[in-house]
Specification:
By secondary structure, the chain is of the alpha/beta class. It contains 10 helices and 7 strands. It is globular, with a radius of gyration of 17 Å.
């Protein structure tokens, strides 16, 4: 296989949850501009359509809508995808939520919301799109599931983020268990554990984050769109076809330097 097509993802079909902002939009942009027919999902159909129209300047992109915090959200999203596509080469479980606050301030509602979006939705959406993943999968070209975890699921930060960290650690474990289960189906499951990237949950330009970057990250900077696009394309392409069950830190050396 030549270097020209080792990282080729053109002609594939992808679904990226939380694809209208932050890391999800970065990944979607990387796929769309490289010939992947990409569906992005959010809670708001208008917002999904707006971002899809912007990304469609670079290729094929379409908006879908579902509230993944709700029990029927994954099934709803899977049904809307199935109305359009009979196969799915790449699923990116990126939709995320956070609820900061001390243990004294945490509510059951906030805890359940974080676990529902970050963990439950990732599992049940994967379950619900299995027919499309299996339709796309083959020994020579496996289907891919890419879960977005976090370095917050691999260490304990200096602030209280109990439900977020617990949910992301569980995502990392779920990645391993699904990789074991779906290996015979030629579906590869991996996770990316990002450090600081600009998103709804992280303002990389803030003084606090900039101080953290300068203190703890050997690379000395926040992540860029090209960083997460490069890893996602690697995992989705032939170049990543023997990577399975791994959680890859994308953090400029943060975890390694702890």
């Amino acid at each position: 296989m030549s270097g020209d097509n080792l990282f080729d993802v053109s002609g594939k079909i992808a679904l990226v949850t939380g694809g209208t902002s932050g890391i999800g939009r970065m990944i979607a942009h990387g796929f769309v501009s490289r010939g992947v027919k990409t569906y992005i999902a959010s809670r708001d159909q208008g917002r999904s359509d707006e971002v899809a129209a912007e990304l469609s300047q670079h290729g094929e992109c379409f908006g879908l809508c579902a509230d993944l915090a709700q029990e029927d959200g994954p099934a709803t999203l899977a049904r809307r995808l199935a109305e359009r596509e009979s196969r799915l080469d790449i699923l990116v479980n990126n939709a995320g939520a956070n609820a900061r606050g001390s243990i004294e301030e945490m509510t059951v509602e906030a805890w359940d919301m974080v676990l529902a979006v970050n963990l439950r939705a990732s599992f049940f959406l994967t379950q619900q799109v299995l027919p499309q993943l299996r339709a796309a999968a083959s020994a020579s070209s496996p289907a891919r599931v890419i879960n977005i975890g976090s370095i917050g699921g691999a260490h304990v930060p200096n602030w209280e983020a109990h439900p977020y960290g617990a949910s992301k650690a569980a995502v990392h474990h779920l990645t391993r268990s699904l990789a074991k289960r779906f290996g015979p189906d030629h579906i590869l499951v991996n996770a990316i554990a990002p450090g600081p990237f600009q998103s709804r949950l992280t303002d990389t330009a803030s003084d606090a984050v900039q101080k953290s970057i300068a203190t703890y990250i050997p690379a000395g900077r926040a992540g860029t769109p090209e960083d997460v696009q490069g890893l996602s394309i690697f995992l989705a392409s032939r170049a990543g076809a023997y990577i399975n069950g791994s959680t890859i830190a994308l953090d400029g050396g943060y975890l390694a330097a702890l």
